[in-house]
Amino acid sequence: MERRDFFKKAMVTAGSVALGSSTLEASETTHPVDDRAISPIAFPEKRPMIMYSDRPPLLESPREVFTSALTPNDLFFVRWHMPMIPKYISTNGFRVKVDGHVDKTLSLSIEDLKTKFKQVELTSVLQCGGNSRSAFHPTTSGIQWGAGAMGCAKWKGVRLKDILEHAGLKSDATWLGFNGKDKAVYSETANFIREMKLEDLNDNALLAYEMNGEDLPYLNGFPLRLIIPGTYSDSWIKMISNITVSKEKNKLLFMEKAYRIPDNECECETPDKLVEKTKPIEKINVNSIIGYPQKGSKVRVNSHIVVRGVAFDAGSGIKSVQMSVDNGETWKEAILDKEDAGDFAFRAFRCTFNPSKVGKLTIMCKASSNAGEVQPLAKEIKWNHGGYRYNGVDEVTIEVIG
Amino acid sequence: MRYLLVFLLWFSFPLFGQIEGKIQVPYIEFPMKEGKGEYSTKGKCNMCHSFGYIINQGKQSKVFWRKKIMKMIETFSAPITDEDIEEVVNYLYENYGEG
User: Fold this and answer.
1) CB distance A54–B60 less than 8 Å?
2) What per-residue confidence (pLDDT) applies to B7?
3) Pairing outcome for strands A298-300 and A394-401
Protein backbone atom coordinates (compact mmCIF):
# COMPACT_ATOMS: atom_id res chain seq x y z
CA MET A 1 0.00 0.00 0.00
CA GLU A 2 1.34 3.39 -0.88
CA ARG A 3 1.70 5.97 1.84
CA ARG A 4 -0.93 8.22 0.28
CA ASP A 5 -3.40 5.35 0.07
CA PHE A 6 -2.72 4.52 3.66
CA PHE A 7 -3.68 8.02 4.77
CA LYS A 8 -6.76 7.99 2.59
CA LYS A 9 -7.81 4.69 4.15
CA ALA A 10 -7.04 5.95 7.62
CA MET A 11 -9.23 8.96 7.02
CA VAL A 12 -12.11 6.86 5.72
CA THR A 13 -11.85 4.60 8.75
CA ALA A 14 -11.72 7.55 11.10
CA GLY A 15 -14.77 9.00 9.41
CA SER A 16 -16.77 5.84 9.79
CA VAL A 17 -15.88 5.62 13.44
CA ALA A 18 -17.02 9.17 14.01
CA LEU A 19 -20.35 8.49 12.34
CA GLY A 20 -20.64 4.99 13.71
CA SER A 21 -22.07 6.26 16.95
CA SER A 22 -24.86 8.24 15.31
CA THR A 23 -28.31 6.84 15.90
CA LEU A 24 -30.42 5.35 13.16
CA GLU A 25 -33.11 7.94 13.64
CA ALA A 26 -34.13 9.92 10.59
CA SER A 27 -32.62 13.37 10.57
CA GLU A 28 -33.90 16.47 8.86
CA THR A 29 -34.72 16.23 5.17
CA THR A 30 -32.65 18.70 3.14
CA HIS A 31 -32.71 19.63 -0.54
CA PRO A 32 -31.81 17.19 -3.29
CA VAL A 33 -28.25 17.25 -4.65
CA ASP A 34 -28.06 20.10 -7.13
CA ASP A 35 -24.55 20.12 -8.54
CA ARG A 36 -24.07 16.87 -10.37
CA ALA A 37 -22.04 17.24 -13.55
CA ILE A 38 -23.43 16.57 -17.00
CA SER A 39 -21.86 13.45 -18.47
CA PRO A 40 -19.65 14.19 -21.47
CA ILE A 41 -21.05 11.18 -23.31
CA ALA A 42 -24.41 11.46 -25.01
CA PHE A 43 -26.76 8.47 -25.10
CA PRO A 44 -28.77 7.55 -28.24
CA GLU A 45 -31.19 10.34 -29.25
CA LYS A 46 -30.18 12.33 -26.16
CA ARG A 47 -28.03 15.32 -25.48
CA PRO A 48 -25.46 14.88 -22.71
CA MET A 49 -27.36 14.57 -19.40
CA ILE A 50 -26.64 13.70 -15.77
CA MET A 51 -25.80 10.01 -15.95
CA TYR A 52 -25.99 7.40 -13.18
CA SER A 53 -25.70 4.15 -15.10
CA ASP A 54 -25.40 2.81 -18.63
CA ARG A 55 -26.76 -0.66 -17.86
CA PRO A 56 -29.62 -0.16 -17.19
CA PRO A 57 -29.62 3.39 -18.61
CA LEU A 58 -30.37 6.04 -15.99
CA LEU A 59 -30.29 9.69 -17.05
CA GLU A 60 -31.43 12.83 -15.24
CA SER A 61 -32.57 16.09 -16.84
CA PRO A 62 -30.50 19.16 -16.00
CA ARG A 63 -32.35 21.88 -14.05
CA GLU A 64 -32.52 24.40 -16.91
CA VAL A 65 -35.12 22.33 -18.80
CA PHE A 66 -37.61 23.30 -16.13
CA THR A 67 -37.97 26.82 -17.47
CA SER A 68 -40.46 25.56 -20.06
CA ALA A 69 -43.73 23.71 -19.82
CA LEU A 70 -42.62 20.95 -22.19
CA THR A 71 -39.42 18.98 -21.67
CA PRO A 72 -37.50 18.31 -24.89
CA ASN A 73 -37.31 14.64 -25.87
CA ASP A 74 -33.52 14.72 -26.03
CA LEU A 75 -33.25 15.96 -22.44
CA PHE A 76 -36.07 13.86 -21.00
CA PHE A 77 -35.04 11.66 -18.04
CA VAL A 78 -34.54 7.93 -18.47
CA ARG A 79 -35.03 5.13 -15.96
CA TRP A 80 -34.99 1.42 -16.82
CA HIS A 81 -35.10 -1.43 -14.33
CA MET A 82 -33.92 -4.33 -16.42
CA PRO A 83 -30.50 -4.36 -18.06
CA MET A 84 -31.52 -6.33 -21.17
CA ILE A 85 -33.28 -3.98 -23.56
CA PRO A 86 -33.79 -5.00 -27.20
CA LYS A 87 -31.24 -3.28 -29.41
CA TYR A 88 -33.58 -3.21 -32.34
CA ILE A 89 -37.33 -2.93 -32.78
CA SER A 90 -39.01 -3.00 -36.16
CA THR A 91 -42.09 -0.82 -36.15
CA ASN A 92 -43.68 -3.17 -38.66
CA GLY A 93 -43.01 -6.31 -36.69
CA PHE A 94 -43.83 -4.96 -33.24
CA ARG A 95 -47.06 -6.18 -31.61
CA VAL A 96 -48.73 -5.47 -28.32
CA LYS A 97 -50.76 -8.44 -27.07
CA VAL A 98 -53.90 -8.27 -24.99
CA ASP A 99 -54.80 -11.58 -23.36
CA GLY A 100 -56.15 -13.26 -20.23
CA HIS A 101 -59.76 -12.70 -19.18
CA VAL A 102 -60.90 -11.23 -22.47
CA ASP A 103 -63.35 -12.44 -25.11
CA LYS A 104 -60.76 -12.30 -27.86
CA THR A 105 -56.99 -12.11 -27.59
CA LEU A 106 -55.54 -9.18 -29.53
CA SER A 107 -52.21 -8.70 -31.22
CA LEU A 108 -51.98 -5.12 -32.42
CA SER A 109 -49.36 -3.42 -34.56
CA ILE A 110 -48.48 0.26 -34.24
CA GLU A 111 -50.30 0.73 -37.55
CA ASP A 112 -53.44 -0.89 -36.05
CA LEU A 113 -53.27 1.52 -33.12
CA LYS A 114 -52.89 4.49 -35.46
CA THR A 115 -55.71 3.52 -37.80
CA LYS A 116 -58.32 1.46 -35.96
CA PHE A 117 -58.79 3.46 -32.76
CA LYS A 118 -59.59 6.99 -31.75
CA GLN A 119 -56.40 9.07 -31.59
CA VAL A 120 -55.93 11.01 -28.36
CA GLU A 121 -53.44 13.72 -27.37
CA LEU A 122 -52.71 14.54 -23.77
CA THR A 123 -49.99 16.55 -22.04
CA SER A 124 -48.79 15.06 -18.79
CA VAL A 125 -45.97 15.05 -16.30
CA LEU A 126 -43.95 11.85 -16.00
CA GLN A 127 -42.17 11.72 -12.64
CA CYS A 128 -40.18 8.99 -10.94
CA GLY A 129 -41.42 8.19 -7.42
CA GLY A 130 -37.83 8.58 -6.24
CA ASN A 131 -37.31 12.00 -7.83
CA SER A 132 -35.16 14.16 -5.47
CA ARG A 133 -34.43 11.12 -3.30
CA SER A 134 -31.00 12.53 -2.38
CA ALA A 135 -32.80 14.96 -0.03
CA PHE A 136 -33.53 12.21 2.51
CA HIS A 137 -31.21 11.42 5.45
CA PRO A 138 -30.00 8.90 6.31
CA THR A 139 -29.50 7.89 2.68
CA THR A 140 -32.38 5.69 1.60
CA SER A 141 -32.35 2.78 -0.79
CA GLY A 142 -32.39 3.61 -4.51
CA ILE A 143 -30.66 5.86 -7.03
CA GLN A 144 -29.80 9.18 -5.37
CA TRP A 145 -31.63 11.36 -7.88
CA GLY A 146 -31.49 15.13 -7.90
CA ALA A 147 -34.63 17.02 -8.91
CA GLY A 148 -34.53 16.05 -12.60
CA ALA A 149 -36.12 12.59 -12.61
CA MET A 150 -39.19 14.11 -14.21
CA GLY A 151 -40.43 15.85 -17.32
CA CYS A 152 -43.58 16.85 -19.15
CA ALA A 153 -44.49 15.88 -22.70
CA LYS A 154 -47.40 15.93 -25.10
CA TRP A 155 -48.28 12.28 -25.63
CA LYS A 156 -50.26 10.89 -28.54
CA GLY A 157 -51.79 7.45 -28.66
CA VAL A 158 -54.97 5.52 -28.00
CA ARG A 159 -57.00 5.00 -24.87
CA LEU A 160 -56.24 1.79 -23.01
CA LYS A 161 -59.97 1.61 -22.32
CA ASP A 162 -60.76 1.50 -26.05
CA ILE A 163 -58.30 -1.35 -26.55
CA LEU A 164 -59.80 -3.34 -23.68
CA GLU A 165 -63.29 -2.69 -24.97
CA HIS A 166 -62.21 -4.02 -28.36
CA ALA A 167 -60.89 -7.18 -26.72
CA GLY A 168 -64.03 -7.48 -24.57
CA LEU A 169 -63.51 -7.86 -20.83
CA LYS A 170 -64.91 -10.96 -19.16
CA SER A 171 -67.24 -10.27 -16.25
CA ASP A 172 -64.71 -11.37 -13.64
CA ALA A 173 -61.86 -9.21 -14.98
CA THR A 174 -60.35 -7.28 -12.04
CA TRP A 175 -56.64 -6.64 -12.62
CA LEU A 176 -54.55 -5.42 -15.55
CA GLY A 177 -50.92 -6.54 -15.84
CA PHE A 178 -48.38 -4.69 -17.99
CA ASN A 179 -45.07 -5.98 -19.25
CA GLY A 180 -42.49 -4.49 -21.58
CA LYS A 181 -39.71 -5.95 -23.70
CA ASP A 182 -36.89 -5.28 -21.24
CA LYS A 183 -35.69 -8.40 -19.45
CA ALA A 184 -33.62 -9.52 -16.49
CA VAL A 185 -30.30 -11.17 -17.32
CA TYR A 186 -31.42 -14.55 -15.98
CA SER A 187 -34.62 -15.55 -17.69
CA GLU A 188 -36.16 -17.23 -14.64
CA THR A 189 -35.92 -14.14 -12.42
CA ALA A 190 -38.48 -11.39 -11.85
CA ASN A 191 -39.28 -9.05 -14.71
CA PHE A 192 -40.55 -5.53 -14.35
CA ILE A 193 -44.26 -6.30 -14.49
CA ARG A 194 -46.75 -3.87 -12.98
CA GLU A 195 -50.43 -4.26 -12.21
CA MET A 196 -53.33 -1.88 -11.94
CA LYS A 197 -56.82 -2.42 -10.61
CA LEU A 198 -59.33 -2.26 -13.43
CA GLU A 199 -61.53 0.09 -11.39
CA ASP A 200 -58.68 2.62 -11.30
CA LEU A 201 -58.59 2.82 -15.09
CA ASN A 202 -59.95 6.03 -16.58
CA ASP A 203 -60.05 7.78 -19.95
CA ASN A 204 -56.63 9.39 -19.40
CA ALA A 205 -54.61 6.18 -19.52
CA LEU A 206 -53.06 5.91 -22.97
CA LEU A 207 -50.88 3.61 -24.99
CA ALA A 208 -48.69 6.31 -26.51
CA TYR A 209 -46.51 6.02 -29.60
CA GLU A 210 -45.68 9.71 -29.93
CA MET A 211 -43.95 12.17 -27.60
CA ASN A 212 -43.84 15.91 -28.35
CA GLY A 213 -44.75 15.26 -31.98
CA GLU A 214 -42.03 12.66 -32.59
CA ASP A 215 -41.80 8.88 -32.30
CA LEU A 216 -41.00 7.95 -28.71
CA PRO A 217 -37.24 8.05 -28.20
CA TYR A 218 -35.79 4.55 -27.84
CA LEU A 219 -34.75 5.20 -24.25
CA ASN A 220 -38.22 6.51 -23.36
CA GLY A 221 -39.89 3.32 -24.53
CA PHE A 222 -40.00 3.19 -28.34
CA PRO A 223 -42.28 2.23 -29.96
CA LEU A 224 -45.07 2.21 -27.34
CA ARG A 225 -45.46 3.02 -23.66
CA LEU A 226 -48.19 3.30 -21.10
CA ILE A 227 -49.21 6.77 -19.85
CA ILE A 228 -51.14 7.07 -16.57
CA PRO A 229 -51.46 10.82 -15.90
CA GLY A 230 -51.43 11.89 -12.26
CA THR A 231 -49.51 8.84 -11.03
CA TYR A 232 -45.77 8.32 -10.56
CA SER A 233 -44.12 6.65 -13.51
CA ASP A 234 -43.52 3.22 -11.95
CA SER A 235 -46.40 1.75 -13.95
CA TRP A 236 -45.77 3.69 -17.17
CA ILE A 237 -44.32 0.56 -18.78
CA LYS A 238 -41.93 1.20 -21.68
CA MET A 239 -41.77 -0.88 -24.89
CA ILE A 240 -45.06 -2.32 -23.66
CA SER A 241 -45.72 -5.68 -25.33
CA ASN A 242 -48.20 -7.45 -23.07
CA ILE A 243 -51.40 -6.45 -21.36
CA THR A 244 -52.83 -9.33 -19.38
CA VAL A 245 -56.28 -9.15 -17.82
CA SER A 246 -56.74 -11.31 -14.75
CA LYS A 247 -59.22 -12.09 -12.06
CA GLU A 248 -56.76 -12.29 -9.16
CA LYS A 249 -53.87 -10.07 -8.22
CA ASN A 250 -50.55 -11.76 -8.99
CA LYS A 251 -47.62 -11.90 -6.59
CA LEU A 252 -45.08 -9.67 -8.30
CA LEU A 253 -41.77 -8.46 -6.93
CA PHE A 254 -42.14 -4.97 -8.33
CA MET A 255 -45.63 -4.61 -6.89
CA GLU A 256 -45.14 -6.22 -3.45
CA LYS A 257 -41.73 -4.76 -2.59
CA ALA A 258 -40.91 -1.73 -4.71
CA TYR A 259 -42.54 1.69 -4.91
CA ARG A 260 -44.32 1.46 -1.58
CA ILE A 261 -44.59 3.84 1.36
CA PRO A 262 -45.74 3.34 4.96
CA ASP A 263 -49.49 2.94 5.22
CA ASN A 264 -49.91 5.27 8.19
CA GLU A 265 -51.15 8.83 8.56
CA CYS A 266 -47.78 10.58 8.16
CA GLU A 267 -46.63 8.08 5.50
CA CYS A 268 -43.37 8.03 7.41
CA GLU A 269 -41.09 5.79 9.43
CA THR A 270 -37.59 5.71 10.91
CA PRO A 271 -34.68 3.51 9.80
CA ASP A 272 -34.70 1.55 13.05
CA LYS A 273 -38.46 1.13 13.05
CA LEU A 274 -39.72 0.45 9.56
CA VAL A 275 -43.47 0.30 9.18
CA GLU A 276 -44.70 -3.13 8.18
CA LYS A 277 -47.92 -2.16 6.47
CA THR A 278 -47.20 -0.40 3.19
CA LYS A 279 -49.17 0.96 0.23
CA PRO A 280 -48.29 1.89 -3.37
CA ILE A 281 -46.97 5.43 -3.94
CA GLU A 282 -49.56 6.11 -6.67
CA LYS A 283 -50.68 9.75 -6.96
CA ILE A 284 -48.06 12.45 -7.31
CA ASN A 285 -48.14 15.37 -4.87
CA VAL A 286 -47.99 19.10 -5.55
CA ASN A 287 -44.52 20.23 -6.54
CA SER A 288 -42.59 23.04 -8.24
CA ILE A 289 -39.04 23.65 -9.35
CA ILE A 290 -37.01 26.69 -10.31
CA GLY A 291 -35.43 26.32 -13.78
CA TYR A 292 -33.63 29.67 -13.73
CA PRO A 293 -31.56 30.99 -11.99
CA GLN A 294 -29.48 28.03 -10.98
CA LYS A 295 -27.19 27.29 -8.07
CA GLY A 296 -24.26 29.70 -8.27
CA SER A 297 -25.74 31.90 -11.03
CA LYS A 298 -24.16 35.36 -10.85
CA VAL A 299 -26.36 38.44 -11.24
CA ARG A 300 -25.71 42.16 -10.85
CA VAL A 301 -27.10 44.05 -7.91
CA ASN A 302 -30.29 45.98 -8.83
CA SER A 303 -30.65 44.07 -12.10
CA HIS A 304 -34.00 42.69 -13.26
CA ILE A 305 -34.18 38.98 -12.57
CA VAL A 306 -36.96 36.83 -13.99
CA VAL A 307 -37.21 33.60 -12.04
CA ARG A 308 -38.75 30.84 -14.16
CA GLY A 309 -39.95 27.41 -13.25
CA VAL A 310 -42.71 24.84 -13.49
CA ALA A 311 -45.36 23.60 -11.05
CA PHE A 312 -47.66 20.58 -11.18
CA ASP A 313 -49.81 18.16 -9.21
CA ALA A 314 -51.82 15.00 -9.79
CA GLY A 315 -54.41 16.73 -11.96
CA SER A 316 -56.38 19.19 -9.85
CA GLY A 317 -54.30 21.95 -11.44
CA ILE A 318 -52.05 24.64 -10.01
CA LYS A 319 -53.78 27.43 -8.10
CA SER A 320 -50.77 29.60 -7.36
CA VAL A 321 -47.00 29.72 -7.09
CA GLN A 322 -45.29 32.05 -4.65
CA MET A 323 -41.69 33.19 -4.48
CA SER A 324 -39.62 34.39 -1.56
CA VAL A 325 -36.18 36.00 -1.58
CA ASP A 326 -36.03 36.60 2.18
CA ASN A 327 -35.99 33.04 3.51
CA GLY A 328 -39.75 32.74 3.58
CA GLU A 329 -40.51 35.95 5.53
CA THR A 330 -42.56 37.39 2.68
CA TRP A 331 -43.97 35.76 -0.43
CA LYS A 332 -44.74 37.26 -3.83
CA GLU A 333 -47.29 35.81 -6.29
CA ALA A 334 -45.73 34.43 -9.45
CA ILE A 335 -47.42 34.89 -12.83
CA LEU A 336 -48.73 31.59 -14.19
CA ASP A 337 -48.65 30.92 -17.91
CA LYS A 338 -52.04 30.61 -19.52
CA GLU A 339 -53.41 27.18 -18.93
CA ASP A 340 -53.84 25.45 -22.26
CA ALA A 341 -52.20 22.08 -21.86
CA GLY A 342 -54.56 20.68 -19.21
CA ASP A 343 -54.20 19.98 -15.51
CA PHE A 344 -51.77 17.07 -15.78
CA ALA A 345 -49.17 19.29 -17.47
CA PHE A 346 -46.35 21.42 -16.11
CA ARG A 347 -47.64 24.93 -15.44
CA ALA A 348 -44.84 27.36 -16.25
CA PHE A 349 -44.48 30.35 -13.92
CA ARG A 350 -42.34 33.46 -13.72
CA CYS A 351 -41.67 36.01 -11.02
CA THR A 352 -39.48 39.09 -11.08
CA PHE A 353 -37.33 40.81 -8.48
CA ASN A 354 -34.40 43.19 -8.18
CA PRO A 355 -31.65 42.03 -5.84
CA SER A 356 -30.74 45.04 -3.73
CA LYS A 357 -27.79 43.67 -1.76
CA VAL A 358 -24.47 42.17 -2.79
CA GLY A 359 -23.86 38.65 -1.53
CA LYS A 360 -25.52 35.25 -1.52
CA LEU A 361 -29.28 35.20 -2.00
CA THR A 362 -31.70 32.29 -1.79
CA ILE A 363 -34.78 32.10 -4.00
CA MET A 364 -37.63 29.89 -2.79
CA CYS A 365 -40.72 28.75 -4.72
CA LYS A 366 -43.87 27.19 -3.33
CA ALA A 367 -46.84 25.84 -5.28
CA SER A 368 -50.46 25.33 -4.17
CA SER A 369 -52.91 23.10 -5.99
CA ASN A 370 -56.61 23.54 -6.68
CA ALA A 371 -57.15 20.54 -4.42
CA GLY A 372 -55.78 22.62 -1.53
CA GLU A 373 -52.38 20.94 -1.26
CA VAL A 374 -49.40 23.21 -0.47
CA GLN A 375 -45.74 22.24 -0.79
CA PRO A 376 -44.11 21.71 2.61
CA LEU A 377 -40.66 23.01 3.49
CA ALA A 378 -37.95 20.42 2.88
CA LYS A 379 -37.27 20.05 6.62
CA GLU A 380 -40.94 19.25 7.27
CA ILE A 381 -40.84 16.19 5.01
CA LYS A 382 -40.71 12.94 6.94
CA TRP A 383 -38.45 10.03 6.06
CA ASN A 384 -39.54 6.83 4.31
CA HIS A 385 -37.29 3.87 3.46
CA GLY A 386 -37.51 4.25 -0.30
CA GLY A 387 -37.04 8.01 -0.37
CA TYR A 388 -40.29 8.47 -2.26
CA ARG A 389 -42.57 11.46 -2.89
CA TYR A 390 -40.22 14.33 -1.99
CA ASN A 391 -41.90 17.65 -2.79
CA GLY A 392 -40.15 20.24 -0.63
CA VAL A 393 -40.25 23.96 -1.40
CA ASP A 394 -37.45 24.43 -3.95
CA GLU A 395 -34.45 26.63 -3.14
CA VAL A 396 -31.74 28.04 -5.36
CA THR A 397 -28.88 30.11 -3.95
CA ILE A 398 -27.34 32.63 -6.30
CA GLU A 399 -24.61 35.23 -6.01
CA VAL A 400 -25.38 38.92 -6.31
CA ILE A 401 -22.29 40.87 -7.40
CA GLY A 402 -21.62 44.60 -7.47
CA MET B 1 -39.74 -0.01 -64.69
CA ARG B 2 -40.64 3.08 -62.70
CA TYR B 3 -43.10 1.04 -60.65
CA LEU B 4 -40.49 -1.58 -60.01
CA LEU B 5 -38.13 1.12 -58.75
CA VAL B 6 -40.78 2.54 -56.45
CA PHE B 7 -41.52 -0.96 -55.28
CA LEU B 8 -37.86 -1.68 -54.56
CA LEU B 9 -37.35 1.63 -52.80
CA TRP B 10 -40.37 0.94 -50.62
CA PHE B 11 -38.87 -2.32 -49.45
CA SER B 12 -35.36 -1.07 -49.02
CA PHE B 13 -36.55 1.56 -46.53
CA PRO B 14 -38.64 -0.29 -43.98
CA LEU B 15 -40.50 1.86 -41.49
CA PHE B 16 -38.05 1.93 -38.63
CA GLY B 17 -39.41 5.04 -37.04
CA GLN B 18 -36.60 7.41 -36.25
CA ILE B 19 -34.18 4.65 -35.40
CA GLU B 20 -32.19 3.07 -38.17
CA GLY B 21 -30.34 -0.08 -37.39
CA LYS B 22 -29.36 -1.24 -33.95
CA ILE B 23 -29.18 1.06 -30.98
CA GLN B 24 -25.94 1.10 -29.09
CA VAL B 25 -26.07 2.46 -25.56
CA PRO B 26 -22.53 3.68 -24.83
CA TYR B 27 -20.45 1.61 -22.46
CA ILE B 28 -19.39 3.73 -19.50
CA GLU B 29 -16.42 2.77 -17.38
CA PHE B 30 -17.14 3.55 -13.72
CA PRO B 31 -13.79 3.64 -11.95
CA MET B 32 -13.80 1.37 -8.89
CA LYS B 33 -11.76 2.12 -5.81
CA GLU B 34 -8.80 -0.18 -5.35
CA GLY B 35 -9.14 -2.58 -2.51
CA LYS B 36 -9.58 -6.15 -1.37
CA GLY B 37 -12.52 -7.70 -3.17
CA GLU B 38 -12.47 -5.24 -6.07
CA TYR B 39 -12.15 -7.92 -8.71
CA SER B 40 -14.72 -10.33 -7.35
CA THR B 41 -17.17 -7.45 -6.88
CA LYS B 42 -16.54 -6.28 -10.42
CA GLY B 43 -16.89 -9.77 -11.86
CA LYS B 44 -20.02 -10.75 -9.96
CA CYS B 45 -21.99 -7.52 -10.12
CA ASN B 46 -21.05 -6.18 -13.53
CA MET B 47 -22.37 -9.30 -15.24
CA CYS B 48 -25.86 -7.87 -14.95
CA HIS B 49 -25.50 -4.14 -14.36
CA SER B 50 -23.05 -1.28 -14.33
CA PHE B 51 -21.04 -0.31 -11.29
CA GLY B 52 -22.80 3.06 -11.50
CA TYR B 53 -26.03 1.30 -10.52
CA ILE B 54 -24.30 0.39 -7.24
CA ILE B 55 -22.40 3.51 -6.27
CA ASN B 56 -25.22 5.86 -7.18
CA GLN B 57 -27.27 4.31 -4.37
CA GLY B 58 -25.10 6.57 -2.22
CA LYS B 59 -22.81 5.75 0.68
CA GLN B 60 -24.53 3.03 2.67
CA SER B 61 -24.28 0.95 5.82
CA LYS B 62 -22.88 -2.55 5.94
CA VAL B 63 -26.36 -3.85 6.72
CA PHE B 64 -27.65 -2.13 3.57
CA TRP B 65 -24.98 -3.60 1.29
CA ARG B 66 -25.50 -7.05 2.76
CA LYS B 67 -29.26 -6.84 2.21
CA LYS B 68 -28.75 -5.72 -1.39
CA ILE B 69 -26.37 -8.57 -2.11
CA MET B 70 -28.77 -11.10 -0.62
CA LYS B 71 -31.56 -9.62 -2.73
CA MET B 72 -29.40 -9.92 -5.84
CA ILE B 73 -28.68 -13.56 -5.04
CA GLU B 74 -32.17 -14.56 -3.96
CA THR B 75 -34.24 -12.53 -6.40
CA PHE B 76 -32.02 -12.08 -9.43
CA SER B 77 -29.89 -15.26 -9.22
CA ALA B 78 -26.61 -13.33 -8.98
CA PRO B 79 -23.78 -15.91 -9.13
CA ILE B 80 -22.27 -14.88 -5.80
CA THR B 81 -21.24 -17.93 -3.80
CA ASP B 82 -21.50 -18.11 -0.01
CA GLU B 83 -17.72 -17.64 0.32
CA ASP B 84 -17.84 -14.51 -1.84
CA ILE B 85 -20.62 -12.76 0.05
CA GLU B 86 -18.39 -11.43 2.84
CA GLU B 87 -15.76 -10.21 0.42
CA VAL B 88 -18.25 -8.27 -1.68
CA VAL B 89 -20.03 -6.84 1.38
CA ASN B 90 -16.72 -5.75 2.89
CA TYR B 91 -15.46 -4.24 -0.35
CA LEU B 92 -18.63 -2.17 -0.80
CA TYR B 93 -18.76 -1.08 2.80
CA GLU B 94 -15.08 -0.21 3.08
CA ASN B 95 -15.06 1.78 -0.13
CA TYR B 96 -18.65 2.97 -0.41
CA GLY B 97 -19.73 2.90 3.20
CA GLU B 98 -21.61 5.60 5.05
CA GLY B 99 -18.50 6.61 7.03
Assistant:
1) no
2) 45
3) parallel
